[in-house]
Known about the structure:
Elements: E1 3-8, E2 13-16, E3 19-22, H1 34-45, E4 49-54, H2 63-70, E5 74-77, H3 84-97, E6 102-106, H4 108-113, H5 120-123, E7 131-134, H6 138-147, E8 155-158, E9 190-194, E10 196-198, H7 208-211, E11 216-218, H8 221-234, E12 239-243, H9 251-264, H10 270-273, E13 276-281, H11 288-296, E14 299-307, H12 311-316, H13 323-335, E15 339-346, H14 353-365, E16 370-375, H15 383-388, H16 417-431, H17 434-446, H18 455-460
Amino acid sequence: MKRILLVEPSGGYIRLDRCMQSINSWGGAYRFPLNLARIAAHLSSIGYKLDFIDLQADKTSNLKEKVTQFKPDLCILSCGFPSMRIDSETARDIKQISNKIHVSTFGVAPTLLNDSFFNFDTWGFKIHFDSIVVGGEPALGYEELISNTEIKEKAIIKSSLKKVKAIKTQLARPLFNHSLYKSPFTGQNATYIEGTYGCPFRCNFCVVPVLYEGRFSRRTPQDIINEFKYVIENDNVSQITLWDEGTTFQKSFIRELCDGLIELRKSKDERFRNFVWTTRSTTALLDEEIVEKMSKSGLSGITLGIESFSDSVLEKIEKNISVDSNYEAIRLLKKYDIISIGHFILGQLQDTKQSVEYTIESAINSDLNFAQFYCAVPYPGTKLYDMASPLNLIRETNFTKYELSNPIMDTMNDLSYLDIGNYRKEALNLFWTSKRWAKIDELLLKRGLSNNICKDKLKQWSNSIDIQKQVIFKDSSL
Length: 478
């Protein structure tokens, strides 16, 4: 295998690590496929010929034409739970063009399902992939697959996390049309850069502890800054997302990174003076010194894993934060004019009617600028699945429905999955007010940016499970 084609299948889904959801969740903006770029960068560094096609962001793309012209030996496709039927059908289409091509996939779904991934009964349809790479470092897994001259049918290749390393995606970025990938907030060209790798925490609902086997590592701040410079100079982007599970895990790291970005913004080159960036954090790790420094470095927004405004629920899901830390993080971000993006998970096992309603009311009444309301999804292999399954609380077993807008399970406290779906719809409607849109406008304007959020697509991001609408809150003024 010397020629390798990377493929982002169609369908309108995000397939980046644990983010397996409709692109409407972010207003229809397509993300730079960082996972494929990592694989491409590593394989090209050891001498393989790479090409890439994006079948959903690039409306002019033609799979048959690309495969016929490039003549790949191996095709590597992104995949996810909700997009799996489309992903598998894309693998089938490739093999119909040439049955000599080996077609493989990687990521969360193959890793969590492992041996059962290929089973018809797992999905209810045929899986057309020849192999899967499981684990959190697919780039190294594909190096092993390619070097193996005797790949068996339905092969499972385990990527080695013992050799985990930061991969400089600069090597692969010329393969991508960067004008396809936009910021959901401004609509301007945007890209993703890897920061830290894995996560030191063990939240029981999360797939990350399984995917990365509990490992955590990070790139050097200078390495990240060098890649900021590269994408700004070469990829015509001025908005960058530092993609990791939490940039603020180590204060010495974030201080050094911000100091370097502050120096970069002092450049005589206007492109370096005007870039902005976003990232993720757990609320417990944000203090005033860090938030102030991040603001000075050009941070325009940060996503927060708030999950709940119930300390009891947070403790039970093994989330090492508190309601107080949630409020403090929101306060600090407001003080320094950084867009706060809260993520909430409704319908955890321990949730009650009162805890869900209180979380929604607290989110609505908070100073959060943006919120994502998810349903708890008991992905197979997670601790949440292991707890919910023996209690017979999982009501949806079709894995293609395992998308974060879909209610999947009942709680232990007499909340049905249908109740959770209705709560999520109500939360979405009540949170998005004209006052909130105006505040986002104001914050973006302070950084010389315009608001290009596609409100219609954002509010259309709803479940595909049939739920009868019910009135949840008696007081609709909340």
